Amino acid sequence: MSPGPVGAAPAGPGTPPPVETADAREFAGVADETQRLWTPHRMAYIGGENKPADPDDGEQCPFCTAPRRSDEDALIVHRGEVAYVILNLYPYNSGHLLVCPFRHVSDYTELEDDEVREVAELTRTAMRVVREVSQPAGFNLGMNQGAVAGAGIAAHLHQHVVPRWLGDANFLPVIGRTKALPLLLADTRRLYADAWP
Q: Around Cβ 43, how many Cβ atoms within 10 Å?
């Protein structure tokens, strides 16, 4: 049996492991029963590191600046006429795509008819491509309209296309606020871009 936290009595058979105390965290490398998945890259998102200082400034908006970069660098999967598909830099699940109009617009009701059509068509195609490449069991689709509704970048509309698998919402994201992603973003972008019709 692995030792518990420093200063704690060892757990006997049938006894739950002791709760880690603040003092125990000072001793990195002390073995216990906990498996840890370190995701330090998420701190940029949690701390708002990449959020624009002025959300209405298209020069600061990541969804406005991404199309000016190469597809590989920006993680763009496909470019349409008035909208494009990009991997979410902070995905909820592997293969989490965003469908964005090129135009800096915040509200769905502000889209022009051709933008509504292309966002919808790119969303359907994204689902088909993700099904072909990643075989998810289902999808979550949605737009968070406004910061109060959960939009990380509320000033630039984007449709979420999140593939889902049975068992993908377990204790890690629910309790530990941690997500294990098995495939690198660059590899995911390449697979989806190659499969795009």
A: 9
Whole-structure pTM value: 0.70
For 171, phi then psi, to 5°, come to -65, -25
Where exactly are the structural domains of the chain?
39-195
CATH superfamily of domain region 39-195: HIT-like (3.30.428.10)
Each residue's pLDDT tens digit in the chain (197 positions)? Answer: 444 444 444 455 565 555 545 454 444 555 656 555 555 655 555 555 566 777 677 788 999 999 999 999 999 999 999 999 999 988 888 999 999 999 999 999 999 999 999 999 999 999 999 999 999 999 999 999 988 888 888 999 999 999 999 877 765 555 556 666 778 899 999 999 999 99
158 catalytic per annotation = yes
Q: List the catalytic residue out of 78, 96, 156, 158.
A: 158
